[in-house]
Design brief:
Elements lengths: L8 E3 L4 E2 L6 E2 L8 H6 L4 E4 L4 H8 L9 H13 L1
Length: 82
């Protein structure tokens, strides 16, 4: 065991948000992130959607230029932990 503290859980590719109607579609099924979070007393920090623009920004090395409401909430939460 490494004994490295876990700051929180972030679920990647949790859902796809329709660009037309903004409904969330859980294409990989319902999330189970709550169970390990509760069992191990770890904060559930975020669910990251499948976001083509985020993938593009990462591929181009421009993650700092990416903007989305959920991304701002995530980065603000991470900054508070550090």
């Amino acid at each position: 065991m490494l004994h490295i503290p876990v700051l929180g859980l972030v679920e990647n590719m949790a859902y796809f948000e329709c660009p037309s109607c903004h409904d969330r579609h859980f294409i990989y099924g319902k999330s189970n992130i709550e169970k390990p979070a509760v069992e191990h007393h770890i904060e559930q920090m975020a669910q990251i959607p499948i976001e083509p623009q985020l993938a593009k920004a990462c591929d181009q090395g421009k993650i700092y230029d990416f903007e989305a409401p959920w991304f701002k909430d995530l980065t603000d939460g991470l900054e508070q932990l550090l």
